[in-house]
Design goal:
Chain lengths: 235, 207
């Protein structure tokens, strides 16, 4: 399916031999190649959220592509340019670090400054209900974190690296990412320890308080009843 | 590696990576479906784990383009399933939380399709050193990252249980204090009321 699309695109763009035409051709080929991402369906007002638990100073790149169900052709077609997706990213403290609207196809990037669970939410900005006609929007999504977000072809071209050098650079990036994850692990263990200690303290204080309450209640009960019976002249 | 991919690499566009891992929230009574177009002959692996929520279990089903069920498990906490795509088309897998009435579940899954694209789109991978380090070191580091992900998921489970316990202890302490006070004060006044009634009946009998 992707191969047929490539052939059709090559046929239409081979007329121009200008540099701009070559760029367009490769852009289209690149878009065709991206047809193999994971996809899911989303309703019109539905908000889909994804969680990324990442260490700090980690870059996250998300790519998405939307398609709308065309009832006449009974297949999914690329969505009209007017239909966009609103992307919202929240950091672990629920502070919004990215809230932007993109077109029917987009790429969003953010870098985490605190370690923890970041929430990426997508929902369509469609206000015209007739646009969907009761159908669903198909969203192809691809989220790359940390070392996977690096564009090695670009790095190789920019720094003029040989194959071996590029591979070493990739290994170095991988090791750095592992290091960041280990630091994050240490931070998480400390948080876990704090939670457990808090539970321990609460249980301890509650036991002491409960004993004190029981003793106090017992004393109060006896005194109150004694004075009551004395007043009734039964004691 | 086809030439157009090499050209795309030269222009600086990154080829799509084939290892999407996604963590998402599955509400109660809901199911979430994902689809992927896979070419025949590709080795694929689906791994999923329930991170938080309820009894940490979910139903999972993987179907091929003709609707044949390749993998089906009910109420599993985590699993790993590898298969080779025999047909061309859209494979779909679905996570169902319909048996749960009020617990949201956070789920992680990782669907690997085929091999990672080669780093350098060239054909001259003849150097022995390149072969060694490109295969063994990179793969070893990838498995380290994989293990780290497993540790992180387990730790997330532990953390959510610990926080749950902490809030439960707090609520239970406050609740029990309240019940204790109400019961003990109520006992005293109830006892007092018994003696007050008896007093009036005896006095009426006497006169």
């Amino acid at each position: 399916m992707a191969a047929e699309r490539v052939v059709r695109l090559v046929g239409s763009s081979s007329r121009t031999v200008l540099r701009g035409g070559m760029r367009a051709l490769l852009l289209l080929l690149w878009l065709a190649a991206r047809g193999s991402a994971l996809y899911f369906h989303i309703g019109e007002t539905e908000k889909k959220c994804f969680i990324e638990e990442i260490p700090d100073e980690t870059m996250v790149i998300g790519n998405y592509r939307t398609q709308l169900y065309d009832k006449q052709r009974e297949e999914y077609q690329p969505a009209t340019p007017g239909l966009g997706m609103f992307v919202e990213v929240k950091d672990p403290e629920d502070k919004v670090i990215l809230a932007r609207q993109y077109g029917s196809e987009g790429r969003f990037t953010f870098t985490s400054h605190t370690p923890g669970e970041h929430q990426i939410c997508l929902h369509s900005n469609s206000t015209k209900f007739s646009l969907f006609a009761g159908g669903m929007l198909r969203v192809h999504l691809d989220i790359q974190v940390g070392e996977h977000a690096n564009d090695y072809a670009e790095i190789a071209a920019k720094d003029k690296l040989s194959e071996l050098q590029l591979r070493v650079r990739q290994l170095v990036e991988q090791v750095e990412q592992i290091q960041k994850e280990q630091n994050y692990q240490r931070w998480r263990e400390e948080r876990f320890r704090q939670t457990s200690e808090s539970t321990n303290q609460r249980v301890l204080w509650w036991s002491i308080l409960q004993t004190l309450i029981l003793v106090a209640i017992g004393v109060w009960q006896m005194r109150h009843l004694k004075s009551f019976f004395e007043a009734k002249k039964l004691v | 590696m086809p030439r157009w991919a090499a050209a795309a690499g030269r222009w600086g566009w990154r080829l799509p990576a084939l290892l999407p891992e996604i963590t998402f929230e599955l509400p109660d009574n809901a199911k979430q479906r994902f689809y992927e177009d896979i070419a025949p002959g590709t080795a694929c692996a689906l791994e999923f784990q329930v991170i938080t929520g309820g009894h940490y279990d979910v139903d999972c089903r993987l179907e091929d383009p003709d609707g044949k069920v390749l993998y089906k498990e009910m109420k599993t906490r985590y699993d790993n399933f590898t298969f080779t795509a025999s047909k061309n088309g859209t494979y779909r897998f679905c996570f169902c939380n319909e048996f749960s009435t009020f617990t949201h579940k956070t789920m992680y899954f990782d669907f690997q399709v085929g091999e990672d694209p080669p780093l350098f789109p060239s054909e001259n991978r003849v150097s022995a050193l390149t072969q060694v380090e490109s295969v063994s070191i990179h793969e070893a580091l990838k498995s380290v990252t994989d293990y780290q992900t497993h540790v992180r998921l387990r730790e997330a489970q532990g953390q959510s249980r610990a926080e749950d316990l902490n809030t439960r202890v707090a609520y239970w302490s406050v609740g029990e204090a309240f019940v204790l006070l109400v019961v003990s004060i109520g006992q005293v006044f109830l006892l007092k009321s018994f003696f007050s009634d008896k007093r009036t009946t005896t006095s009426r009998v006497g006169s």
